[in-house]
Every structure is written in structure tokens, then in C-alpha cells.
Amino acid sequence: MRLTALDAQASKLGLSVGMTLADARARCPDLMSLPHDTEADARELERLTARMQRFTPMAAPDPPDGIMLDITACAHLFGGETALACTAAVEAGYTARHAFAAHAAAARALARYGELSPPSSLRGRRPKQSRVVCADSGLPRGFAARNDDGEEIAEEALHARIHALPIAALELPEDAQSGLRRAGLVTLGDLAARPMAALAARFGGDMVARLRAVLGEQDSPMVPQRRAEPLRASVRFAEPVARTEFVLDVIEDLLAGLCRQMEVRHLGGRRFTVRLERTDGARRQLTVETSVPSRDPARIIRLFRERIEGLADPLDPGFGFDAMALAVTRSEPLHPAQPAMDGEGGVAAEGIAVLIDRLTTRFGRDGVLRTGPCDTHIPEIAQRVLPAMQVGPAAWPDLGEGQPRPLFLLDPPQPVTAMAGVPDGPPQRLRWRGHLHEVVRAEGPERIAAEWWRKAEGHVAGGAGLTRDYYRIEDETGARYWVFRHGLYEETGEPRWYMHGLFA
């Protein structure tokens, strides 16, 4: 395991990206580390790229931590290239390094491997996370860019800076870089002075292609990230509309068009919003949600009908509505599903989803609840109640056939008096609610350790940090119970017993 990112304090301690975690902890025993979430980084990079589109429509992510901007004919709107880069970094909330060149590959190499300092406007700021922002100015030959201090950089000076870049800027495999260093080739200028044919014969055509791209001798196109078109439809009426049924018919027509758009984009709507505009300028907004992505107009229009019928304040058209807009304000991927041979596949699950949608529309988000699993193994807090619209079908952990759980849990667990073998034997006799139960069969223990990183949770008083030994027992009448001993004998001199569940 190696370090992938550091904060300012870790850098001051001498840690570096690429260092093994073991070496880092040997140097800094109190080091706090977190696992690298590559998916979260990718989502954040996409968000930042979308935000950069306010500066230029040509913005593309440069994984893992860069953004390419083509600011041709855009920089003067923000006070110049450097001012644009500084403003973009400040608004994004990150300390960034930036570079300018006539083509994307050179700007990327300069930003990542050039001797650059953070923009002056960001010095002294505490960075959330280091990011690299590459700017492609798209300038023709003979241009004059500016450096971080606002001084002009002639084409020849920038050409010299590119030639001074280390061979690491080509991002070749380590064995290829070692071969180049052994041959005495340290910078891109050293490579550019050699015949390209000889370099390709010895180090491969990929190295030559990367070198020519950075030097500007080969195109390095960028693919901008395009913002998805909003799912929205609107209509204006020649005459004001006052009938609710006509309004629902128009909503259904708009839904049909939006559902066709979602089908092409493999999306399904989760939240649909209708905005009605009256002739007197008043506006009315209606919103319905679905528990699963949907693009079925009939199903959605039923929800709007339920929504209108359940309004405490009836939909008052006044002198009539003269405009209407429908938007899908939340969508999720929805790919075509293969139907079953009998045509009944997924009917039960879809019926439950439709029922949840209708009840939620009628009674509100907090009117229909669903249990969901929690990330804990303590039984009494292993689930929570959430709005049915917020969570999907519960993905409960698979405990295996050897550790069944009772259908009915007591909340809180009830104390019992038990006679058991020492130190960790199952109960042989117990008294619960005034009745004596002789244990004829017992299975266990299933040991559940305390969660040392949490405070005391649950209902058993005075038991923070104690281990539980669970047993499945059966008494002489055939009734089956789930009991546990709270605490080991080495943890507490006198463990207590509790009844926690009843098996069917």
C-alpha cells in the first residue's frame, strides 16, 4: 500500500506521494490514513469540469487530477489567461497549478512536470486537495503568453521551457525511462535533438508519438465534456385553460415526449415537476417522485392525478393557465430489461414500487417507511427506518445457513436468570417472565464482539465494550429462543443473560 495524496502537514514531515504506508508510519507513528476512493475522485473531477464550462465551452477532464481548457477567444473576458486560471481555481475551492501552451499536450506536460508555483492569488490558502489545471490557449505561432507574475513569455522562451522538461513528462513505463537515462537522454530537448527514426527503432513508436505531441509536431486533440441537455418540455396556450382534466391531458402529452428522450439516453425519471403559470402571473408547482426509475407515462400521470386529488389547497386555475412546463429534475440510468417468457417477470416488484409511489404521493415522504440495513453487527441497531423513496430494496448481509436470525426481536432485550456451564457453556435452565424453561437443545455460541470505536449503543445498561455470546436454544415444549450472555468471565466476574429474540 502506497500514499496517493498528502495534506500540507504530512508534506512538511517529509512524506511523499508513492511512499509505502509502512515507511510513512515508521517515520510518523501518529499518521492518520484513509483509503483512496478513486470513484469519488472521478465524480469530483467531472463536477469540476462541468463548473469550468462557465469559462469556456471546451473543457475536458484529464484524469486523475487535471482539467484541460481551450480558452481561445475566452481569456479576455476574465482579464487574461492567468486571471482566468486563478479565478477558476478559487471558485472551485482548490489550490491548482496551471500552464499555457499552443496545444494541449504541451500545456499538460508543463503543468504536471514544469517548475511552476501555485498562482499568486492562492498562496497562503489552505488547499482542500491539490489539483492540476491545464489550459490550452489555442494560440497560433508567434503568440506571447504570460507567466504567473503577469510577464509575457515569447514563443521561443516557451519552446525552451518545453525542451527543458524531464523525460518523465512523456509518462512512459519505468523500464523505458531507465533506458533513456542510461543512454544519457534526460530532457525532452535531448530527445528532440536525436533522429526520430532512431528513437522509434530503439524505444518504440509510442515514445516518439508522445514526444511529437508535446513538441507540437503532432495533433493532440481534446474531447470536451458536454453538459447533458435538461429533460424539459413546455407549452403555451392560445386561450387560458381552466379545466383540471385538460391540464392532465397536456401533462400526459409532454410526458410522452420526455419519456422518448429518456429512452434514447437510457434514463429513467425519479422526480417530475410541473409548473403552471396563471394569466394573473401566479405560479403553481406540483412534484411527484418514484421509488425506482421510470419512463412510463401512464404510471406517472396516475401519480399527478393522486397529487392533485390530495392537495389540501385545491388547484385553483383562477382565470386560467396560459403556460405549462414539465421537467425531470432527477433521473437515473434505466436500461431495457428482458421480459420473461410468460410475460410475468418483474410484475410483483413493479407492483410494490407502484404501490409505494401512490402511497407516498398521497401521504408524503415520511408517510411510507422502509427498513434498511446499517453498517453494524450489533443486532438491535442493525437496521434503521427511512422513507421508502430514499432507499431501494434492502441488501441485507448474508449471514449463511449456520447463523439464522429470529423473526421477532425484543426491544430492549429482556434480562433472564440462567444456569449455565463455566466459562462459556450454553444455558441449561433459565427463568423468563416468571416461567422456568428447561433447555433440551442448544447451539452456539455465536460470538459478537463490542464495537470499540463506538460509544455505548443499544439498550443493555452498563455493558459498553462487553462481548456477547449468542445461543439458539429449545425448551421442553419445543419453543425456540435466542439468548445471549453479556460479557465473558475475564471481562466481568458475573456475566448477565438476556432474551433477545423468538424463533417462529
TrEMBL record:
The subunit structure is: Monomer.
DNA damage keyword on record: yes
CDD domains, from UniProt?
PolY_like
Keywords of the record, alphabetical order, are: DNA damage
Q: What does this protein do?
A: Poorly processive, error-prone DNA polymerase involved in untargeted mutagenesis. Copies undamaged DNA at stalled replication forks, which arise in vivo from mismatched or misaligned primer ends. These misaligned primers can be extended by PolIV. Exhibits no 3'-5' exonuclease (proofreading) activity. May be involved in translesional synthesis, in conjunction with the beta clamp from PolIII.
Key word Signal present:
no
Catalytic activity of the protein? DNA(n) + a 2'-deoxyribonucleoside 5'-triphosphate = DNA(n+1) + diphosphate
Q: Where is the UmuC domain?
A: 4-87
Q: What class of enzyme is it?
A: transferase
The catalytic activity of this protein is classed by the Enzyme Commission as 2.7.7.7
Q: Which residues form the DNA polymerase Y-family little finger domain?
A: 233-311
Source species of the chain = Novosphingobium album
Q: What is this protein called?
A: DNA-directed DNA polymerase
Q: By its UniProt entry, which Pfam families does this protein fall under?
A: IMS, IMS_C
PANTHER family associated with the record: BLR3025 PROTEIN, BLR3025 PROTEIN-RELATED
Recorded superkingdom = Bacteria
